[in-house]
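Encode chain A's predicted structure.
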Amino acid sequence: MNDRHRTIDRLRKKYKNIAAGVLAGAAIMSSVILSPVAGAAPQNAAQHESTKPPTKYEQVIDIKATAYAPGAHDNDQWGNKTFLGTQVRPGIIAVDPKVIPLGSKVYIEYP
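Encoded structure for chain A:
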């Protein structure tokens, strides 16, 4: 097991239930609960850690999610930034805006 996989395993344990976050690396089967908020900015996952899903939501989707870690080894020419220029850190996720609108509040749960 290389360092990247150890990091992925550690992050999976640490961020078991989060409302918007980064998990470095591997594909993860997820349920995503969407509550779009117009003009919302990404926020730090530490402020949103939760042991239960939100009681109000607009949509639940089951997806196969992938994520990235900061650095050229995972994020090519963007390094420690997302495609839109946001610093890669817990609380920031990448989305396909055709599926999850930018600025949505997202609760991510996985086994």
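The CA atoms of residues 32 and 61 lie 5 Å apart.
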